[in-house]
Amino acid sequence: MKVFVTGVAGQLGHDVVNNLIARGHEAVGSDIADAYSGIRDGSAVCTAAYVKLDITDNEAVGRVIAELKPDAIIHCAAWTAVDAAEDEENRDKVDKINRLGTLYIAQAAKAADAKMLYLSTDYVFNGKGNTPWKPDDRSFEPLNVYGKSKLDGEMAVSGTLEKYFIVRIAWVFGLNGKNFIKTMINVGKTHDTVRVVNDQIGTPTYTFDLARLLVDMIETEKYGYYHATNSESEPGAYISWYDFCCEFYKQYGLSTRVIPVTAAEYGLSKAARPENSRLDKSKLTENGFKPLPTWQDAVKRYLAEAEL
């Protein structure tokens, strides 16, 4: 299978390309940079095609995908800076990347008769309550500019294609790029105490594990909406960012004291954040997909690889 992957320089796109190559698929990565040398499988650099592409350029998107003729597209490219998206000067760019860019990819996928997988987020919901969001729930009410733009991307995909997967994820961490674990371990090395929010609840997602699932998906025709994060240690055992930080500090061996605070007490976010990021992942097993391992196991493997 020939698979085109956008956003290959990011945490997820990087791992998706590596997984595709490891499983014998033909992968073509793209991003906005002139070149990208970070595609690797273990310690060995893999041979993978790379195409520079600005997804907000409709003509370029159509040309590149028409020339490549992929069987599938995994669309990882996105504006993900949630707080910066709130700034007036960034809003047009956020819309162009997350809505228009996704629409252009979807239209090109349709023209090429390629299946498409789009990565979305729990931010499309209002983040209220304590019940896990189901993948086919349509009670959309994004709290911030980022969430609205990702919902617009979902609508662009579902309104254009029949052969699509929309996969919502949360609390992402991976080897390639910045993430909460890297940031907090660096802070913990130089501080005796840290403050971490304890009233936002969900489950983290390790991009290495997610990439395997996404490739599993595009090898099928089991289209639709899905939720995917790493598994809870037991059913319903969702966690807060505070719980998450305590666990990876313990695994890493840091003695830094973690102080739980509410989001209101923390008070540093421009964008409203969901209190409830619980995602119901039961549809994965119902459709024959293998769930992701527990988040504690994912943290252990990540720390062994990351060399922080």
List keywords for this structure.
single chain; 308 residues; alpha/beta; Rossmann fold; seven-stranded parallel beta sheet; two-stranded antiparallel sheet; 10 helices
Question: Short summary of the structure?
Answer:
This protein is of the alpha/beta class and 308 residues long. 38% of the residues lie in helices and 20% in strands. Strand 3 (40-41) and strand 4 form a beta hairpin.
Walk me through this protein's architecture.
With 308 residues, the protein is an alpha/beta fold. It has one domain: Rossmann fold. It has helices at 11-22, 58-68, 88-112, 145-160, 180-188, 207-218, 241-252, 263-266, 282-286, 295-306, and strands at residues 2-6, 26-31, 40-41, 44-45, 49-52, 72-75, 115-121, 164-169, 172-173, 193-197, 201-202, 205-206, 224-227, 230-231, 239-240, 257-261, 292-294. It has a seven-stranded parallel sheet, sandwiched between helices. A two-stranded antiparallel sheet has the order 3-4. The two termini are 35 Å apart. The model is unreliable at 40-46 (pLDDT under 50).
